[in-house]
Every structure is written in structure tokens, then in C-alpha cells.
Amino acid sequence: MTAVLAVATLLMTAGCSSDDGGSPGGGESTAPGSTASGASPTRQAADDAPPAKGSVKVLRTVAEGLETPWGLAPLPDGDLLVSSRDEATLTRVDGETGKKTEVGEVPGVSPAGEGGLMGLALSPDYASDHMVYAYFTSASDNRIVRMLYDEQKPSGAQLGAPDTIFRGIPKGFVHNGGRIAFGPDKMLYAGTGESGDTGLSQDKESPGGKILRLTPEGEPAPGNPFPDSPVYSYGHRNVQGLAWDTKQRLFASEFGQDTWDELNAIKPGDNYGWPQAEGRSDDAAFHNPIAQWGTDDASPSGIAYAEGSIWMAGLKGQRLWRIPLKGTEASADPQAFLEGEYGRLRTVVSAGGGKLWLMTSETDGRGSPEGGDDRILEVQVS
């Protein structure tokens, strides 16, 4: 794998594959209200870069025996809520002992290919409303729902009926997107795919191949770049990673087709090029990635921010990538960790204190599961 740092933009020249590792087919990032309180414009423009080289230490295996895990949402008490893509269930994992308790099954999920029950997010007001948001593939589309999680009810029957807040995201056997997250502005962001219909990515009337920004009720969020539209950015192929840095700037990972996977700094209203561009382009109409990888080395799903870097889970690449940041640029070559040690890596979530929750994806039909798969790991990073 060869890496070069050219100008302020990083290019990785190694070979990569599309999406979850199957066959092909498939400026400044400023969210509204994102200016950090008390920070001077000069300080914001000149972020301190982390060391060029970091480290990763796996502290423990938190849980084993998970079936097609996809989304992971840390609960306030330190436990973890995990979605099963193919079984359409939510499972609570004890953050200390790893004990697994089924919360309930989400009705209406239609798993197939890369689709099923995917991303999870807790309401910004979870302490008072106990609402869990989920992104899933139905018989007709991809949609986002919210459900009451009542811990007082018996195990397996703790989920209320899903309330669909957004529907009509195109579905396909591949490229269903699926990551959702509440931003620092308490708006709901969703990474979607173009479902294999590449023209949808450039169609601002379609929610496919986009990053969407919604209110918690599923309406287009105030301040979106296009009037009365949920679209926040477009020209994406298949976004499955969303994370914000400490300055509230949004970053997103994206699957390439045959050549380049991407990490992008997201600017509202910008066009990220697909299908006209895969990876860097000389066309000024397209926002270039801050880092790119050959598809054999990445096929990125989830990302998280910790210790001044974006940490990116690689599926086909079977490794955890560290991308150190200076502002919205990569400040040094990305580093790869855990290469091949735990297989396909699906989801990574900040656990605070320089730690991450890292979840594998060997049981998704494209891995080679061994005893104990799939797993959640607790990882210390720097």
C-alpha cells in the first residue's frame, strides 16, 4: 500500500473493492450553529494537529456471538444497544459483563443483500423521552423510524410500535446507506446510498446518494442548503460513516466502486461527485475527499472521532484506519491497525477517554466467521 501526501490533500494508492466487499455495482465542514463558543477565529482556523503516528490497544472483548450486528448506540448507563441487520432485533449488551438481552424485534424490516436493520441513534432527549431511532430496509424502501424503549417491560417486548418519521429512501440489493446520528445541533443526519441507480446521486429531488439532515420529527431541518429539502450534501455513492470533531465539523466515509474509497469533510450543499467522479477530481464543481484508499484496503463503514483523528472501520480492508486531522484536512498519512486480526470491521463509536467501541462484521455473508464472531471490542487509542 503506497501513500502520498500531496498539497493539503491525502491520496492513498492501494487497491480497494466496492461497498461491503462484494462485486462492483454498486473546504470547510460547517453545520448550522457549529461555531465553537469562546474560540477565536484565528484559533479555529489553525487547529493543533495530533502526532503523525498514533497507537491502538485492544483492552478486552466486551461481547461475542452477535449475529449480523450493524448499528451500535451507547446507553447512558454504559450498556450498548446493538441492531442485527438480518434478524431485525435490538439487543442490549452489558458494558461490563457482555451479557446479551434481547430488547425486541423491529416490525416491517425486510433484510436482503446489504439491507435490513442498520443504523441506530438515541434521541438527544433520551433521558426524558427514551426514544430510539433506527434506519431500516422495508419491502418498498429504506426508512427511519423511532420507537419507545421501555426497560420496565419484559425482555423481548420492550420496544414500542415504530413511528415512521422519514420514508422513500431508495432501496436496492446493495448501496442502502444506513448510518444515522444526531449532530451537535440536535438534528438527525442520515447517510444514504443510491441503491445501484447512479443517477440518483446527482438528483437533488431524490434522497438517494445523499447525506440528509432532519429534525427529530423527520422534517427538513432549519438552515438546510436547499429550501424545504432534507438534502444536506449530494453526489455520494454509499455513505455509512458519520462523525463530528470537537469543532462540530462533520466528516463522512464513502464506498467507492472499483478504484477509490473516500473520507470527506462535509460542507452543506456541496456536490461530492458521484458518479462523475470517484475519489479526487480536477473538476472544481466537486468537493474532493481529504483521504482516499484503494477499495481492497478499506471499504469503509462506520467512523468515529477521538484524540484528534478520525477512526474508520474497514470491511474488506479488515483494519482500523487512523486519519489525523488539522482542521478539515489530513495532517499526515493514515495509519492502519488490527489488520486482519478481527476480520471485517463494521462500526466504531467513541466511548470517551480516548477509547472506542469497535464492532466486527464477519457474519454478514461476506466474512469468514470463526468461533465467537461477531464481537464488540473496547479499544484504547491515541
From TrEMBL:
Q: Where is the composition biased (Low complexity)?
A: 29-42
Region (Disordered) location: 15-53, 361-382
The record's InterPro entries line, in alphabetical order, gives: 6-blade_b-propeller_TolB-like (IPR011042), Glc/Sorbosone_DH (IPR012938), Quinoprot_gluc/sorb_DH_b-prop (IPR011041)
Coiled-coil regions listed = none
Protein origin, superkingdom: Bacteria
Q: Where is the composition biased (Basic and acidic residues)?
A: 363-382
| Glucose/Sorbosone dehydrogenase domain segment(s) | 66-366
Q: What is this protein called?
A: Glucose sorbosone dehydrogenase
Source organism? Streptomyces dysideae
